[in-house]
Specification:
alpha+beta, 6-stranded mixed β-sheet
Length: 136
Amino acid sequence: MGADGTAADGHPLLGRRLPPVALRTAEGPVTSARLLHPARGVLLDLADDSRLRSAARGWRDRVVTVTGGPEEDGPLTGLAALLVRPDGYVAWTGEDGDGGLTGALGRWFGPPAEGAGADVRTEDRRAPHHDQEDTA
């Protein structure tokens, strides 16, 4: 951490709890707190970037991918994506593309699942308002 309490080499949210934020997704509005209810990691794709979703495919059994954006300007403004641990702490932030995402996924969620193949998306019934890739 830097002297001002922010991450020394990253976005100010890195290493901090995800703040309460209202989000809009294709499935409708949801809060950042609601996304954490299933106690899984969350990749919040704020830029609708297929590279992010593709990079996270191997962790879809442990990380929920949500595509959407904040309803108003706030702490997520300017970010393309963030990876949130199940305890609500931000593990990775991205401002453009997926640089470093697979490293963060591996560090916090272990190696990717074997045979992580086709990018087939279905709704996960454990938590509303998110995109989940099919594990079949």
